[in-house]
Amino acid sequence: MGMASQIAEREDNIVVEDLRDYMYGPLRFTRTDLVAITIQRGRDFGLRSYTEVRKALDLPPVKTFEDINPELNNINPQLLHDVAELYNRDISKLELFPGGLLESLDGPGPVFSAIILDQFERIRNGDRFWFENKQNGLFTDEEIQTIRNMTFHDILVAVTTAEANDIQTNVFFWRDGDPCPQPAQLNASVLYPCTNATKLNYFDGYKAGFGIFIIVLFLFPVVSFLVACMVAYLRKYRYRKFQRRRKAGAKTEEPAVGITAHEWQGHKKPLNPVSVEVDEKSRLQVYDRSAAAPRCLNLGNQDYLDIHLSNDHHRKALLLKVPKEYDLVLFFDDESKRTAFVKHLRPVVTDVGQEIRVREMREKELLKEALTKEQRAQIVETFIRHAFSKVLEIEKCDAGDMSGVSREKAREVLQCELTASEFADALGLKPDSLFVDSMFTLADKDGNGYLSFQEFLDVMVIFMKGSPEEKSKLMFSMNDIGGTGFLSKEEFARMLRSFIEISNGALSKSQAEEGIKALMEAAGFNDKEKISWEDFHYLLRDHEKELQFAQLNVKGMEKQGKKRMSRDQRVSFICPANRSSTSTPKVYVKPKREQYIRNPVQQKIQHFKRFIENYRRHIVCFIIVYGISAGVALERCYHYGLQAESTGIPETSAVGIIVSRGSAAAISFLFPYMLLTVCRNLITLCRETFLNRYIPFDAAIDFHRFMAMTAIILAVVHSLGHVVNIYIFSISDLSILSCLFPKVLSNNGSEIPLKWSWWFFQTVPGMTGVLLLFVFSFMYVFASHYFRRISFRAFWVTHYLYVVVYTLTVIHGSFALLQEPRFFIYLIPPALLFLLDKLISLSRKKVEIPVVRAELLPSGVTHLEFKRPQGFVYRSGQWVRIACLMLGTDEYHPFTLTSAPHEETLSLHIRAVGPWTSQLRELYTEESLFELGAYPKLYLDGPFGEGHQEWIDFEVSVLVGGGIGVTPFASILKDLVFKSSIKSKIQCKKVYFIWVTRTQRQFEWVSDIIREVEEMDTQELVSVHTYITQVAEKFDLRTTMLYVCERHFQKVWNRSLFTGLRSVTHFGRPPFVSFFSSLQEVHPEVGKIGVFSCGPPGLTKNVEKACQQMNKRDQAHFMHHYENF
Q1: CA angle 150, 153, 158 (to 5 degrees)
Q2: Cα atoms in the 13 Å half-sphere on the side-chain side of 875
Q3: Radius of gyration from C-alpha coordinates of the chain
Q4: CA–CA gap between residue 1044 and residue 1037 (Å, rounded)
Q5: What is the spatial distance between Cα 976 and Cα 776, in angstroms, rounded to a whole number?
Q6: Distance CA 884, CA 893 (A)
Q7: Domain FAD-binding FR-type, which positions (predicted)?
């Protein structure tokens, strides 16, 4: 009754608040807006605009917003004005729904009325059961008429218990006098307020778990790093244990002499076990574990002996104050031993008329009172710096300004006197060196066994600023012990011996005696009984320049002083000028450089041009690889950003989808084609083809690293993109997800999406993706340079996980969650080539190679000579991989062949620097071979090519080898000489071999190879230069005489005193820029010079810098190929 009598508002263009803000919505939004939804739905379905619909319904056109509803415009003109502004007064843009609402004033307007009428007529005419359809025979004419006359009032009375008078005849309108009157018209004020909108966030309760899981993913590299650290620690521990076990037999412990104690050397330093004893000369000898006497304290040169004893902590500590030296602090096992030591000192001190002053104090104060070795070293360093600041033009700040130091401390520095051992340490020499002994005796004018500030200064002035005559006279006086002005032959030989000792073992005793004999013979001293200073100075006549610039390099002061010339300016030799026995062209290290000087802009341009020329193949390949990667990535980004609108995926998670699919496309290209960079056999074969002119096969491993790093970065980006996707999917309605992924999800009407954990752990892409990240973290961490060097086996094992990586990647994309799988398309071509390369290696690895000869050389080098397999063809400079199953592992390690291609056997020189190489050396010792009965056999894989084999493609090649890095050049030198001996046509006309070694005695086997090359090199194709870095450069006064001996020996015997070779021996590090400059002078017609270096990174880096410096000029182009170990 109420619905029939309740007075409601008439139809108008106003949508009530209930429908505008509080209409029911989907599950995630409990309320929504009917008007907004209707307008958006019309746009989604492409409904025509309001004006187009009027035209389609044959209604009169409307040209302005005011014409839509003139009556409404009179009542509320502001409403139509505001609507017009929303559409920029362009009525053609007005949607159907708002236009139809604006027509309504007292019921539907013309458009809605026409649409309703049209829809009604279409439904009626299409309904065969319509009551007015006489053709269906359902109703008679009378029944049709009865139905037409029936009203809603009749229906309500018929279906309810209401009487006819209880409801008005026209139930839709109530008028005065009708039954069931209402007190007032219904309005919003008498209604209950609508419930406010609430939201259901699908992600509530899962935020913490999602965040923790993402953090765990980022911790994968951290976990793998910790595991790698543990593996490295265990590897180091086992290696040290192996070394200790190997040295256990050779190491013998000598019984301790005197009283045992522990020496305290400073805070935070371990106690050093020592034994102390007083000898017959009243000197206190302090022995370490090896029973050597590193320290000797003279107790007889002081009036009294100060001893401080600790009176706490079990009374174990003792401090012996030593004037002019650092103090001696001893910890004894108990007080009785300390008392015995003091009693042991008393009779010795009493015999020389001294007394002992004993004081007791707390142990903490005793240690604070002691002058430690470090503190003494600081005083000595300041002492030396201030001495040099008096001699050279050094700023006070460089010399250690004492303006801020206390007066007592400054006095302590200036009153400091150097001991012989401190003086030797300052010169970088051994305390028992004859040179130190002679020089210290000469400088110690008062003979007290110490050098005062003035005594030290007097000697330094002559050494640093004296004339050649003064320096040679000082060296002569150092050995003229009697001051007679003459030296006997024995004294002169002793002087030469003192200089030769400075080489720190670079010469053996026999070599030293040969050098002395040659020098005396060359100088004509054999017929003289006595040698004067004039004779000695005449001996140095050809080395006036060396003596002029020679200075005494003191530790810590090498780079000080403005007047010191740079080595590149001073060095004037690569090939001696007076060598008449050879026709080798002179190579000067100081060329004429003025004509090459350009302005900086021209140098930069020239440098850039040479860089492009040097690396043009690298640049082209780099552009191709990364261009393809960028292309496939951009294609996928463009597709999902602009072309995949029909799928609905971009609108759901545009950023995440674009990022993940673009990076996945690039990864799909990089990971498969990365395999080509490690196909060693195919690369070696391709080197011999025309492809070597277009592809830089030398940089295969570098490209492998670049591609791998790019791929892992893109893998992380890909993962982050999917993290965004999974978050979006976790808050999207199930109806939307079922539309996006119909193969995976179905709409069950719940609207609640699946949790984030489902995407990670219950889908194939999620599980394989997490596993891939875990595997990547281990592969990449163990492939880093540090861990690869420490534990090659761990790197080897983890890198074999590439099989797991490619398997998981294929499975990862096969689920076709977003697109059809494509990875296999990129994988098949390179995988087939990689499989072929592996089959070639496997066919060789099965063959055991018998070792013919094994020799253990000095410096931990093992020489292995083994049988050459049938059909084994290689070029000089190539390398192989070997394995030895007797070591309990099948891992292969790379080594360069030192044999030449024409030799019947293969040879390797392997230096023991790690666990595997050390164990291999141990396997070929006499003890191991006696137990085994025969040489352990090897497994061989190779040969493989590298840049060094291209030496033959240059007219002039420079080979630079450092340490064990000379191995590829040993093969090259022998091959070059052999080819020239059989008149083989080769492009290379000259080879300069620079051998940089700490001492030639480290690698005597190289000297043997070079000696063999020199004997066979009849056409003088090879020029060898040896640089011994253990000996200071020749402009250090300590080694000037050593240099003189070397030159005189070379002059007399036509071979080096150090190496026994005809090649030139130099001291210090090679000046590569000067050397390369001289090559341009000697070979002006050569356009390209090949530079090949192998050794530690520092060496190859210096060579690279020198090549870059030379390539700034417009003369010969230096092309550098290097290999680090």
Answers
A1: 80
A2: 14
A3: 48
A4: 11
A5: 45
A6: 10
A7: 844-950
The CB-side HSE value for 718 (13 A sphere, CA atoms) comes to 25
**Could you give the 3-state DSSP secondary structure of residue 532?**
strand
Helical (H) or strand (E) element with 306? strand 304-310
- Average pLDDT over all residues of the chain: 76
Q: What share of the chain is helix, strand, coil (3-state, %, to 5)?
A: 55, 15, 35
Tokens standing for residue 60: 């009169």
pLDDT of 553: 45
Output the six-digit token pair for 415: 């009153």
Give CA torsion, residues 686, 692, 698, 704, to 10 deg: -70
Nearest to 26 by CA among 226, 207, 220, 197: 197
**Residue 31 binned pLDDT confidence (cut-offs 50, 70, 90):** low
Residue 310 near residue 360, CB atoms below 8 Å:
yes
Give the C-alpha distances (Å, rounded to integers) separating 480 from 475, 489, 547, 1036.
9, 12, 20, 22
The pTM (predicted TM-score) of the whole model is 0.59
Residue 565 tokens read as 């010339």
The one-letter amino acid code at 557 reads M
Confidence class for position 1050, pLDDT limits 50, 70, 90: low
Q: Please state, in angstroms and rounded to a whole number, the distance separating the CA atoms of residues 274 and 258.
A: 10
CA 1102 to chain centre: 19
Q: Please count the other Cβ atoms lying within 10 Å of the Cβ belonging to residue 78.
A: 8
Would strands 938-944 and 848-849 be described as parallel, antiparallel, or unpaired? antiparallel
Close Cβ partners of 509 (under 8 Å, ≥ 6 residues apart) = none
Of 411, 409, 408, 414, the closest CA to residue 385 belongs to 414
In the predicted structure, residue 717 carries a pLDDT above the cut 90: yes
Beta strands 990-997; 1022-1028: pairing state: parallel
Question: Would you call 881 helix, strand, or coil by DSSP?
Answer: strand
Joined together, the tokens standing for residue 1075 give 């050397």
CA distance 214 to 207: 11
Q: Which two tokens stand for residue 942?
A: 């190779």
Tell me whether strands 990-997 and 956-962 are parallel, antiparallel or unpaired: parallel
Residue appearing with tokens 């130091």: 405
pLDDT at 585: 42
Instruction: Give the pLDDT confidence of 247-298 residue by residue, as tens digits.
Output: 655 544 444 567 888 888 887 788 888 888 877 767 778 887 654 556 777 7
Of 858, 855, 945, 847, the residue nearest 897 (C-alpha): 945
In whole angstroms, how far apart are CA 904 and each of 132, 177, 505, 870, 907? 113, 130, 36, 11, 10
- Helices and strands in the chain: count of H runs, count of E runs: 46, 25
**CA 524 from centre of chain:** 59
What digits encode the pLDDT tens for the residues 513-525? 666 666 666 666 6
Q: What is the pLDDT of residues 47-105, one digit of tens each?
A: 999 999 999 999 999 999 999 998 888 888 898 899 999 999 999 999 999 999 888 87
CA 316, chain centre distance (Å): 50
Residue 1040 pLDDT greater than 80, yes or no: no
Q: Are 219 and 41 in contact (CB under 8 A)?
A: no
* Residue 333 near residue 353, CB atoms below 8 Å: no
The whole-angstrom separation of Cα 49 and Cα 97 is: 9
Sign, CA dihedral 950-952-956-959, equals positive
Between CA 445 and CA 450 the distance in angstroms is 9
Contact, 69 vs 109, CB < 8 A?
A: yes
Contact 73, 113 (CB under 8 A): no
**Spatial CA neighbour of 1079 closest among 458, 575, 439:** 575
* Contact assessment for residue 350 and residue 283, using Cβ atoms and an 8 Å cutoff: no
Contact 1040, 547 (CB under 8 A): yes
Assign 1012 to helix, strand or coil: helix
CA 798 – CA 660 distance, rounded (Å):
27
Distance CA 1049, CA 1058 (A): 10
Two tokens at 402?
A: 């004492």
